Amino acid sequence: MKLVSTHGAIPVHIISGFLGAGKTTVLQQLLKQKPAGETWAVLMNEFGQIGVDQQMLPQDQGFAVKELLGGCLCCSSQLPMQIALSRLLSEVKPDRLFIEPTGLGHPGQLLEQLTEPHWHPHLAMRALVTVVDGSRLHDQDWTSQNLYADQLKVAQIVVVSHVDCMSEADHAGLERLKLAYLPYQQQWINVVKGDLKLANIDLAYMGSPRKIQPLLAIQKQTLVDVPTEIKQLPYHYVESAQGYSVAGWKLPKRWAFDFFELLDLLCEQQDWLRIKGIFQTDQGWKTFNFNPDQFNYQSSEESIDNRVEIIYQTEREWLEFEDRLMQCRIDAEKAEK
After folding, report:
1. Helix or strand or coil: residue 251?
2. Which residues form the CobW/HypB/UreG nucleotide-binding domain (predicted)?
3. Is 66 helix (H, G, I), strand (E, B) or coil?
4. CA–CA distance, 34 with 28 (Å, rounded to integer)
5. 170-174 — which CB contacts under 8 Å span 24+ positions?
6. pLDDT, tens digit (0-9, with 9 covering 90-100), for 192-234
7. Which helix (H) or strand (E) holds 36?
């Protein structure tokens, strides 16, 4: 699809967050900061077929609000989003753009789309913002959901809403959350009634320090340099910050694993700070959330892929772990190899 020309690359803010986190309230406060004479645009994504949030935003001159209904623009075909965004840029020619994905969306996938080379002349991506509801941080079942974690991990800035309603248990939950996501070097901002200053989030998108490569076994077999950007599963990645490292694997959704073999493998690991994963197993979809004091696992909703992350500080060789992880597979593809 041919992209339209705009008057230079415009700042683009993704305001993400789980259901009920307060994204729209934050967006309302941000839009109040529009300078006179500028035109700002908002692209909103509703999971259902009836849009409501659009009616809560200003309809005055100087604002243009467009909705994409029915599904998640992060996960579904890129074409509707590309068309909607291209038309918005062409017709409105905004000075600044805000995108609010559905609370059931994966903003990391949206960010990957918008940082493709063909968007570079048109979009200047800013720090990705994820809003979390401070009054629900006491509920670890809520904060440990796979989608919740996905939205947090891609955030450059985490905005904690409803801080005036937080209990002592919520404040303790916030400290646990900050500790769990320490390797991601995020800024955390507390807000009341969505009062967030644009200057605090108008920062350039820093990109990811993540080094994404094919599986270690594949690298060993080829013995050649591999690209740092992999678009298809499976792949392995490592990222480091502030003395911590995260080793992770993303594997195709169609792969299935033996639950008890997988559990044994994860329980046998040593010298780690946190293990989190979600897998399709012969016992159904399972999440694993390990810290040194608790080895928690439970049934889970279906995920978009199989994945595991291990946070550690001591340098490790991961090939043996990966080999054993592959041996836990029980799906038909493994049997064919």
Report:
1. strand
2. 11-173
3. strand
4. 11
5. 170/134, 170/135, 170/136, 170/137, 170/138, 171/137, 172/138, 173/137, 173/138, 173/139, 173/140, 173/143, 174/134, 174/137
6. 999 999 999 999 998 655 677 888 877 766 554 545 455 578 9
7. none
Kindly report each contact of residues 224-229 with a partner whose C-beta sits within 8 Å and lies 24 or more positions away, as own/partner.
Answer: none
Class of 211-336 in CATH? alpha beta
Taking only the tens place, the pLDDT of each residue in 172-199 is: 999 999 988 887 879 999 999 999 999 9
Q: How many Å apart are CA 191 and CA 326, to the nearest integer? A: 44
- What are the boundaries of each domain within the chain? 10-201, 211-336
Distance CA 335, CA 337 (A): 6
Residue with structure tokens 């995260």? 246
Q: Quick check: pTM over 0.85?
A: no
The whole-angstrom separation of Cα 80 and Cα 62 is: 24
CATH class of 10-201: alpha beta
Burial environment of residue 148 by CB neighbours within 10 A (0 to 12, 13 to 18, 19 or more): buried
Q: Can you tell me the mean pLDDT for 26-41?
A: 91
Positive or negative torsion for Cα 163, 169, 171, 175:
negative
Report residue 55 as tokens.
């009616």
Contacts of 115 by beta carbon, 8 Å cutoff, 6+ apart: 125, 205, 207
pLDDT in tens, 287-328: 898 878 788 898 988 887 899 989 888 888 899 999 999 999
